[in-house]
């Protein structure tokens, strides 16, 4: 372009490295004072791809330096020493940070008079407990990203079931499903009761790469779950799925066959645990003889109870699959017998009977 003095300037595009707009250091403020059992924090310690230790020691290439504040994993002495970074974040003195919430969010508004459902530290001035809701109201608007860890935090879980006195809900119900963080991200929901450790770490790593300016925002589905982790059903990754196709169903929990008729909800539940395993690729509910009870789903537990009963649609679907399955099973059995025989020319006789014909020779 031409300047006021008449000289020519050439506009240049910034290089990819120069255009990078990320953070070199970031804090993770993890609050597990929601209504929960702390099982998600405990499960996190089983991650291995990468391990949480690798993350906080800076052993994952390309990530910002991570300062993790979690009561299960913290070397802090506790009390105000542990609360210091949380209070600093509220004052605007600790940024950027990722807020991780573990446990469902109670409804403080239904309490008439004094009392609270769950708290995290005390007010220095009054000495009164500070509720989880108080912290979320002040930290979430300042957070660069907000992550809900586990089904309790994502959709309410056990504490939000019908008849509960707490009015519990998931984080998106509390903050609003259209909530956007300082980093312009929606809430990132990683359900699981508890979280599958690799699922959570993989999601957190993606968010951190995004914070570093090295990756786009993680793709989420309509329930704010990572699409690549929760886009398939349990059934699609289950070792027992072929038995369903053949209408070969378990009558008890000792059988290796499909468990739909003894209470498994796998065909309709979004979860990758049978495919991924639980720890180091091993385990996962149907893989070890358990049924899927839908613990990653928004309707858990109410929509899946009673747990040991056949799912509502299981009876009809198993009836419809029976004629097809019986035919397929029989045909496969016939073919199996045929291919379980050696060819007749495998013998030690003096005559070659393989059909070998050297027709190209004179």
Automatic annotation (TrEMBL):
Keyword Iron-sulfur appears in the UniProt entry: yes
Signal peptide: none
Domain spans labelled Cytochrome-c3 hydrogenase C-terminal: 230-307
Top-rank lineage group of the source organism: Bacteria
The NADH:ubiquinone oxidoreductase-like 20kDa subunit domain, residue ranges: 37-205
Cell location: Cell envelope
The protein's name: Hydrogenase expression protein HypE
GO molecular function list: 3 iron, 4 sulfur cluster binding; 4 iron, 4 sulfur cluster binding; electron transfer activity; ferredoxin hydrogenase activity; metal ion binding
Keyword terms: 3Fe-4S, 4Fe-4S, Iron, Iron-sulfur, Metal-binding, Oxidoreductase, Signal
Subunit relationships: Heterodimer of a large and a small subunit.
Binding-site list for [4Fe-4S] cluster 1: 37, 152, 193
Recorded GO CC terms: [Ni-Fe] hydrogenase complex; cell envelope; ferredoxin hydrogenase complex; membrane
Organism: Streptomyces spinoverrucosus
Family under the similarity heading: Belongs to the [NiFe]/[NiFeSe] hydrogenase small subunit family.
């Amino acid at each position: 372009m031409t300047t006021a003095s008449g000289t020519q300037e050439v506009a240049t595009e910034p290089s990819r490295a120069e255009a990078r707009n990320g953070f070199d250091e970031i804090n993770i403020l993890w609050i597990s004072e929601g209504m929960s059992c702390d099982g998600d924090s405990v499960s996190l310690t089983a991650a291995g791809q990468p391990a949480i230790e690798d993350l906080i020691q800076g052993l994952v290439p390309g990530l910002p330096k991570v300062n993790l504040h979690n009561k299960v994993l913290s070397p802090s002495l506790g009390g105000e020493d542990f609360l210091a970074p949380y209070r600093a974040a509220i004052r605007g003195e600790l940024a950027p940070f990722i807020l991780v919430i573990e446990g469902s969010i109670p409804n403080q508004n239904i309490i008439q008079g004094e009392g609270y459902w769950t708290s995290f530290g005390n007010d220095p001035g009054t000495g009164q407990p500070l509720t989880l809701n108080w912290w979320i109201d002040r930290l979430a608007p300042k957070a660069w990203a907000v992550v809900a860890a586990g089904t309790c935090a994502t959709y309410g879980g056990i504490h939000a079931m019908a008849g509960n006195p707490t009015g519990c809900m998931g984080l998106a119900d509390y903050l609003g499903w259209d909530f956007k963080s300082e980093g312009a991200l929606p809430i990132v929901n990683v359900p699981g009761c508890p979280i599958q450790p690799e699922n959570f770490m993989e999601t957190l790593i993606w968010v951190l790469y995004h914070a570093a300016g090295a990756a786009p925002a993680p793709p989420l589905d309509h329930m704010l779950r990572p699409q690549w982790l929760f886009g398939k059903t349990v059934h699609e990754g289950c070792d027992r799925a072929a038995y369903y196709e053949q209408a070969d169903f378990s009558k008890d929990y000792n059988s290796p066959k499909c468990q739909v008729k003894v209470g498994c909800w796998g065909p309709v539940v979004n979860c990758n645990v049978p495919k991924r395993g639980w720890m180091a690729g091993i385990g996962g509910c149907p893989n070890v003889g358990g049924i899927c009870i839908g613990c990653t789903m928004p309707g858990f537990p109410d929509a899946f109870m009673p747990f040991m009963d056949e799912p509502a649609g299981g009876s009809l679907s198993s009836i419809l699959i029976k004629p097809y399955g019986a035919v397929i099973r029989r045909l496969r059995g016939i073919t199996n017998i045929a291919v379980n025989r050696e060819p007749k020319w495998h013998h030690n006789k003096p005559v070659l009977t393989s059909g070998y014909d050297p027709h190209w020779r004179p």
